Amino acid sequence: xxxxxxxxxxxxxxxxxxxxxxxxxxxxxxxxxxxxxxxxxxxxxxxxxxxxxxxxxxxxxxxxxxxxxxxxxxxxxxxxxxxxxxxxxxxxxxxxxxxxxxxxxxxxxxxxxxxxxxxxxxxxxxxxxxxxxxxxxxxxxxxxxxxxxxxxxxxxxxxxxxxxxxxxxxxxxxxxxxxxxxxxxxxxxxxxxxxxxxxxxxxxxxxxxxxxxxxxxxxxxxxxxxxxxxxxxxxxxxxxxxxxxxxxxxxxxxxxxxxxxxxxxxxxxxxxxx
Amino acid sequence: xxxxxxxxxxxxxxxxxxxxxxxxxxxxxxxxxxxxxxxxxxxxxxxxxxxxxxxxxxxxxxxxxxxxxxxxxxxxxxxxxxxxxxxxxxxxxxxxxxxxxxxxxxxxxxxxxxxxxxxxxxxxxxxxxxxxxxxxxxxxxxxxxxxxxxxxxxxxxxxxxxxxxxxxxxxxxxxxxxxxxxxxxxxxxxxxxxxxxxxxxxxxxxxxxxxxxxxxxxxxxxxxxxxxxxxxxxxxxxxxxxxxxxxxxxxxxxxxxxxxxxxxxxxxxxxxxx
Lengths: 274, 274
Hints:
- Chain A is α/β, with parallel strands linked by helices.
- Chain A has helices at about 5-25, 30-45, 60-70, 120-125, 130-140, 150-155, 200-215, 215-225, 245-270, and strands spanning about 50-55, 75-80, 90, 95, 100, 110-115, 145, 165, 180, 185-190, 195.
- Chain A has two domains: about 1-45, no CATH class; about 45-225 and about 240-270, Rossmann fold (3-Layer(aba) Sandwich), CATH 3.40.50.880.
- Chain A is built from nine helices and eleven strands.
- Mean pLDDT of chain A is about 90; it is low at about 10-25.
């Protein structure tokens, strides 16, 4: 029986092959088709090395949206990286087992990814061992990425200075204290930084990333297999569309988090530790 | 510092209080406001008992979308239920630790939930111990629910006979062999059965469920906190919108899964085990 990965392999191969003939509007010479098949095999198989950080009280959905799409890429190696190999508890209480440690994580990454959270994220951003890891791997990674408040961990490691960045709408005000330029978009790409907005933006973020790592057809295959054709029952997913009272209430309640994140950014800058 | 849950508590309280004054267009008498506050406290706190099945090779995103929204409901108890307490490996290799066993899971549930997968889901649907558990808890649960091919496990336990049901678009053809009426919608509600389509439909499914268990304001609060304002970079999330070649390819490749699911439904019916 075919597995999820096998579907996507077949998809990427056939689609791209078919696309080649279609674009040309004529038969493709055998020799060229073979060469193209080689190219396509490369596109299809990939060999990305992806490290996804997990830490005490991270938000599980920030991780599992992107993980689903990235891990579906044939040939990609995805590591769940934490300080130790002990199961890590998410902010909503789920225990997830890391696959490697900060120390053992491959040195050269295609993607460095950090999910968000609230108090746990600030703790991770303050943690020197985590900050050193992120700064080191981020200095060489092909793509340095985050979803939600994971951006604060990147910022604390000094990786967002002068970059356009997005984060959870309730944390946007903290980005400047890490030297970043806040941009109110679902997914923001600036050179090799790709950041997603809050929690569920991880789905849009990851499909964008798959299309960059492979191609649009591959990303569409992943999207169709996960039936990502969203139909939210309410239009309350952004501060612009939600009832005004709801937005203001959450903004008021979340103030302390944003302020703590701002203070962290300033402290790190002052101490030259960012 | 306020936690995610605290925000939502505050949201539900204030919003509903404000709404009461707003609808009346006049000040609410103190006595009535107090009574209403008591009602609201009930709505806000809740006491749902939710069991989410996990099994070898389940699809993690099928679980973690709904888990995020349901676990955000103040006062709800969410159990991750498996045959043993050993970590369970998802179809993409993530180890998740259950919180209770089939034997120890509470007998009376507000929600019974089953995530999908491919080979692992068929194995779970064939497993007598799992089938007995689902049939038993499902016979008393207030809501019997699934996302993606989790519907096949419900069907194998005899819980979908005569119900309108949805599942992953690639498995729709198997529903009839479990006595269900396939309905091509993102979320299908028929009496106390609520089923979601493939993988990411779990987000729309769970917001719908939150609005039923609490109220629309609460669901909107959860939606805004998770910034669920989807912007897929491609329009390929359903067989109707995806490139035709892609849809046909996946349908062809996935044929064996659908056929195996159909055969299982027929076998169980023949043996009177459903």
